[in-house]
Input
Amino acid sequence: MSERPSWDDYFLGLMEEVGKRATCDRGKSGCVIVRDRRIVATGYVGAPPGFPHCDEAGHLLKQVMDEDGTLRQHCVRTIHAEQNAICQAARYGIPLDGAWLYCKMEPCRTCAMLIVSVGIRRVVALRQYHAGEESRQILRQAGVVLETRENQVESYPGAGA
Output
């Protein structure tokens, strides 16, 4: 008899499946938001409705410098998976207060601020984010529990480093 996955493993697996819908091949990520062990919203990396996707129009890359001076390329054509999931919940009038969020990597600063703003209480990330210290600090200050499964930084093609 096979062993049943834990709830966290189950939702992380679903997050990976949702991420397969991503339309930017540089950051194939998904997000699943859960309340009381029920999925209330999902999101993946993609352009806003009605806008061209990276798959169609190519990447819209901007150069960004990390605090340590590292230059990186970020595609800004798309919305992060966490942002899309939060927007989906807002669009359909689904409250997220007390929810848990499952994502591929620790949230960026903007996503962390949105997570705090909508009342999400726990974030489970598969991997670390290269610039995650500020996000970790924001979540910690707000009392949001952050659990990162793998002690490895998520990377994607063309990000620079």
